[in-house]
Design a protein that fits this description.
Shape: globular
Strand order of the largest sheet: 2-1-6-5
Distance between the termini: 10 Å
Order of helices and strands: HEEEEHEEEE
Number of helices: 2
Largest sheet: 4 strands, antiparallel
Number of strands: 8
């Protein structure tokens, strides 16, 4: 079955592409990019990054083949057969290998 990506999944791919192809897992299990500013809000007592997604979003992208878990705290975009990273911008469009 080939399901469409959610808006949050597409957003996560774009954030990863614009930040070296990687996302990192912060305290509390929120995934963001290296050097993300914080919003000043707290989530269960932890400072919240300005942009984040949940582990569910990351695992869905891993299951669909768009990202790979490097280790417990980092994930990276997967490259397609032509060497493009999924989520890579080509002109004004993004490549999604779905």
């Amino acid at each position: 079955m080939n399901r469409k990506l959610s808006s949050k999944q597409k957003e996560a791919l774009k954030k990863a592409e614009h930040n070296g192809g990687r996302l990192i897992r912060g305290k509390g299990g929120l995934w963001t990019y290296e050097g993300a500013a914080t919003s000043g809000e707290t989530w269960y007592g932890l400072v919240t990054p300005e942009w984040y997604c949940t582990t569910n979003t990351i695992f869905a992208l891993v299951r669909r083949g768009h990202m790979t878990l490097d280790d417990f705290d980092t994930c990276s975009l997967v490259k397609d057969e032509q060497g493009h990273k999924t989520g890579e911008q080509k002109g004004d469009q993004y490549i999604y290998n779905i």
